[in-house]
Amino acid sequence: MNHRVVVTGWGVISSIGHTAATFWENLSKGVSGIAEATALPLDQLIQKIVAEVKDYEPTKHFEARMLPALDRASQFAMIAAREAVAQSGLSLEGGLAERTAAIIGTGAGGQGTLDENYRKLYREGAKRMHPLTVPKLMVNAPASQISMDLGVRGPTFAVASACASATHAIGLAFQMVRSGGVTAAIAGGTEACITFGPMKIWEALKIMAPDTCRPFSRDRKGLVLGEGAAVLVLETLEHAQARSADILGEVVGFGMSADAGDLLAPDVGGMSRAIQSTLADAKLAPTDIHYINAHGTGTAANDVTETAAIKHVFGAHARKLAMSSNKSMIGHSLGGAGAFEMVATLLSVRHNLAPPTINYLGPDPECDLDYVPNQAREMKIDVALSNSFAFGGLNAVLAVRRFT
What string of H, E and C letters represents the secondary structure of 176-201? Predict the structure, then answer.
């Protein structure tokens, strides 16, 4: 028996807000979180523009004794998970802890911890590292820390599939709840990679924008790195209704694919198969979709390929779709990106509002669809998709619907 899967809570900490409410308010207004970095040695960097979580004080969220074991990525994940569970009203009692999963996607894990310890080792000549370094930086640390913080005793693990990590994590959680493997799941993504070493590595790829992120626009120059976390609470409809939970939306489909092609170059076929399998899983026709929250990185190759995939799957209906890229405001948080975008997609459906793609200068000849340029749009959105397409040719797409 398959269960309907509903969302009852979400939490966000991002460059445009430390809660889901402020995130949505600023996203819908087209507020940018992209600015010059404040915590990096700018004289040693070519790329100086990032989307940092600003005015963040760890001690407002965690006791000082906890911080030596918590990388920034884990901190963000825990903050978002706490907000999501508080909103949902989920109480992990009466055996529910054993029937709840915690699945968190991250592309890079504890990069701040890794960077700090390599600096101590190679530059300062440190003879020994802190004994908590390994558990602090491991990729599964955010999921494990959420499990311990909230008392989750069911399946708990990390998903690492580059920029599709969070969408894979939420999709796997959706499948587990739908199948009855668990009753509820806390799922999302986190990233905290705005540190010196990772920035230098990303500079080497030569796909970073020097000014800002302009997805699908002419004169776009690349992506901007972001950070933060977003987490959702998913549960069976029966369980949510039995406890009179406020149902925020419904997840109805999930699809995945691999390009089996190039490590870096996106592929129309791989993207198309992920979208098509999502529609099939959700039992939706292409014409049922009103809005797509695009992967939309702002790079030359990604935006053209995603546009081509939308045209391939949707045919003439592609011209009637609204698409937008949140990365124009919050940057690209790599493994966490899909979680921000899933929360935004659900909120778009809830409020009948498509957030804008800001910084848009005009159409690229190969990007000629409706990207909701520069200003949010009130429109009917009952069914929507959220796309994530990652390095390594790993693709994941989620479908959501207004709950009725």
Answer: HHHHCCCCEEEEEEEECCCCHHHHHH
> Is 251-401 the same fold as 5-242?
yes
Asked if 209 contacts 223 with a C-beta cutoff of 8 angstroms, the reply is yes
Ordered by start, the domain boundaries in the chain are 5-242, 251-401
Residue 7 pLDDT > 90: yes
Q: Please check whether residue 187 is in contact with residue 169, taking contact to mean a CB–CB distance below 8 angstroms.
A: yes
Residue 137's nearest CA partner among 219, 59, 197, 50 is 197
Question: Cβ(174)–Cβ(5) under 8 Å?
Answer: yes
Share of the chain above pLDDT 90, in %: 99
Q: Kindly report, residue by residue over 356-391, the tens digit of the pLDDT.
A: 999 999 999 999 999 999 999 999 999 999 999 999
Report CA torsion sign: 149, 155, 160, 163.
negative
Q: Full-prediction pTM beyond 0.70?
A: yes
* 290 Rama sector, left if φ>0, alpha if ψ -120 to 50, beta otherwise: alpha
Per-residue pLDDT at 93 = 87
Active site residue ranges: 163, 295, 332
CATH of range 5-242; options 3.90.550.10, 3.40.47.10, 3.50.50.60, 3.40.50.620:
3.40.47.10
337 in Cβ contact with 388 (< 8 Å) = yes
Query: Dihedral (C-alpha) 330, 229, 262, 387: value to the nearest 10 degrees?
Result: -70
Average pLDDT over residues 391-396: 98
Homologous superfamily (CATH) for 251-401: Thiolase/Chalcone synthase (3.40.47.10)
